[in-house]
Amino acid sequence: MTVLNIHWRFDLETEESVTRYCPQCGRKVSFVDSSKRRHNANGKNIYQFAIYKCANDHTWNKKLDIYKAKPVLTVNDTEKELCPESVEDPTISIGELSKQGIHTLCICIQSVASPLRLDRALSTKIKDVSRTQIQKLIKQGNIQVNSQTVAAKYLLCEKDYIHFHLRDMSCL
Ligand SMILES: [Zn+2]
């Protein structure tokens, strides 16, 4: 059994929708998280933004996080590392982990700022499994919380352990 232990924090995650003034609509509207993220470099800092959209498709970028870019000491042709490591895509691929021979993914929830459903937490962090597939895996007991089968709507708490068994992914 190969177990991969990872830690997730949801304190920087945002609400699914935010009511705020849309300058283009000219009134207060509800902006919904598109779950798209973008990064902007600005001098030494790299900003991560969540892209929100109003009903009329106007976008608003909510600042989520700031990374410090690593100072580049030498710049030559062999060192073209433009993106510092911290800007890695925060999502994971179950397909890739499975290929690496990982049987179980053990996810420790370090913090949860707002009520967060198990299926939503997983679908925002895993890029190659849909929310519907995740709900199926939860139902089948391939995804468990604290070694127990729970519902997809289970609200995560700090120090919860999610076990994601990758052994039977053929159902996907
Ligand atoms: Zn608008």
Short key terms for the protein model shown above:
4-stranded mixed beta sheet; binds zinc ion; 172 residues; 2 domains; globular; 3 helices; Structural Genomics Hypothetical 15.5 Kd Protein In mrcA-pckA Intergenic Region, Chain A; mainly beta; 4-stranded antiparallel beta sheet
What this model shows, in words?
The protein is mainly beta. It folds into 2 domains: 3-13 and 88-165, RNA-binding S4 domain (Structural Genomics Hypothetical 15.5 Kd Protein In mrcA-pckA Intergenic Region, Chain A, Roll); 17-87, no CATH class. Helices cover 13% and strands 38% of the residues. The chain is built from 3 helices and 8 strands. The protein has helices at 94-99, 118-125, 131-139; strands at residues 3-10, 17-22, 27-42, 45-53, 59-68, 104-112, 143-145, 161-165. The strands form 2 sheets. The protein has a 4-stranded mixed sheet with strand order 1-6-8-7. A 4-stranded antiparallel sheet has the order 2-3-4-5, with no helix packed on it. A hairpin with a 2-residue loop joins β3 (27-42) and β4. α2 (118-125) packs across α3. The longest helix is centred in the last third of the chain and has 9 residues, at 131-139. The protein binds zinc ion. The site of zinc ion has 7 residues, from loops.
Question: Would you spell out the secondary-structure blueprint of this structure?
Answer:
Blueprint: E1 3-10, E2 17-22, E3 27-42, E4 45-53, E5 59-68, H1 94-99, E6 104-112, H2 118-125, H3 131-139, E7 143-145, E8 161-165
Parallel strand pairs: 1-6
Antiparallel strand pairs: 2-3, 3-4, 4-5, 6-8, 7-8
Helix pairs in contact: 2-3
